[in-house]
Amino acid sequence: MAKVVVIGAGFAGHTAALYLGSRLGKKHEITVISNRDVFGYVPSWVWVGVGHMKPENTIFKLKPVYDKMNVKFVHAAAKEIHPDDGDQYVLGEEVGSSKEVRLDYDYLVIAPGPLLNFAGTPGLGPENGFTHSICSLPHAIKARDAYLALCDRMQKGEKVKIVIGTGHPGATCQGAAFEYIVNVHKDLVKKGLRDKADILWLSNEPAMGDFGVNGVQVKRNGHVMKSQEFLTSVFNDHGIRYQVQSGVTKIEEGKIHWQNYEGDEGTTDFDFSMLIPQFKGQPFKYIAKDGTDITSKLTNPAGFVLVDGKYGLPYPELAQTPEAWPARYQNPTYKNVFAAGIAFAPPGPISKPFTNKNNLLIAPAPPRTGMVSGVIGRVVALNIADLIEKGEMTHSEPMTEMVAACIASMGDSLWDGNAVTIVMQPVVPDRKKYPNEFGRDLFTSHLEMGVSGAWMKFMLHHTFIWKFKALPGWTIIPE
Amino acid sequence: MQNSQEFSKAEKFWMNFKLYQLWRFVVLNLKILAAVYQSKRS
Predict the structure, then answer these.
(1) CB-CB neighbors (< 8 A) of B7 in chain A
(2) Looking at chain A, which residue has its C-alpha nearest residue B12?
(3) Half-sphere exposure at residue A217, Cβ-oriented, CA atoms within 13 angstroms
(4) CB B4 to CB A229 under 8 A?
(5) Distance CA A383, CA A389 (A)
(6) Which residues in chain B (2-41) have CB-CB distances under 8 A to chain A?
(7) What ipTM score was computed for the predicted complex, to two decimals?
(8) pLDDT at A339 over 70
(9) Quick check: B1 pLDDT over 70?
(10) A225 in contact with B at a CB cutoff of 8 Å?
(11) Residue B16 pLDDT > 90
């Protein structure tokens, strides 16, 4: 009987656990270790953050789902990974009792989600800083409370400044911040308070609509439309000001410090701000059999797990080398260790990085959340099942082949709501397969705004929660 | 887009015209499903 341990129960870890349970649960031992005992549907936290969805509608308990899928659940925080042959195990600390937990494994999936590195920007974040975040449910609730308090001030006639975007020169997840800013706009319009707020988009993207994926391009009526002009139109239409090519370096009470591509340093005042922090890998310790720390052998300096990618290529070469992107998410040294979702180390950025004259690197990191995380979780799970049952892997899906859909809602009403629907094929441009200047399939890629997007977003919320609860037919719902 | 910087009146009309949006909803679903199953290799 093989033992498979999955660290983390987010989009990647939970998807992997469901597929592993379904394929192997009855014959082998599948265990999930997570410091949270609920699954959180992250895309809907945007609505929590403006007070349009109850937090409890975005979560459900994991254990009943795992019981049904023949997966063991350990409510503990993983601390150490001992990957050496013969004695492979994960050490954790049980939540509540702080009791040490040891989980032996034959195969390990590392999918704990990101470490939200608020410390990377002084003054950032809701705990020790002055800004808000929607990257975790407690943060989204805190952001909602602060936002609603701000609305009360506006109702009394006060004019306010709202800044939303990225809080670090290397931050990712611009899509979530974009969705939040347009939801705030829409909510203020509905409340009749829009004229009381000056809203600014502040981002590290090289251009509007870049989203850390070098933008999205689609062919429509024979004309190539770019997300840059599309998103600029959305912001112009909504009266949202924008500032890109800017890396936030420090936050003080009511003041954001930033540097731009030209190396200019500036400040922006705010009354309410939601800025996405830099993501890092979870700080697990990797320990060899002799007790030495081998973390640097398994991870890159940011703590992301090295997998079957080609690392160290300069950006211009990486942009022309689609095969540099990992396909199986398997550690090259420890072949029974896999990383899924945010946890795997990408070979480099997708968008063009920029270093300004002050030596500040402004470069959005590649997004690996949502659909990408789910797909990788599935690929990793099916390959582990293959290895156990057949002795060889048959699945692979690099981000240069992966399709991703992103629905950025603008209000949750099914009648007058709206959403920008973005489909990218593939996520990472492959200039060899698609010999246009963008490296993408311009027919499949999609960029559209309309009320149909709001219907899509509503449908996704319900179908994904159905899938993640492993209710009947869950496997036919794509990640 | 009118001048690449703002949506035209016609575009705004189609964005909210429910029957057309129903059609776009179907197209979008088919497009995503086709792309997903094309890349979901076994």
Answers:
(1) 233, 237, 449
(2) A450
(3) 14
(4) yes
(5) 10
(6) 4-7, 14-16, 18, 21-22, 24-25, 28-29, 31-41
(7) 0.86
(8) yes
(9) no
(10) yes
(11) no
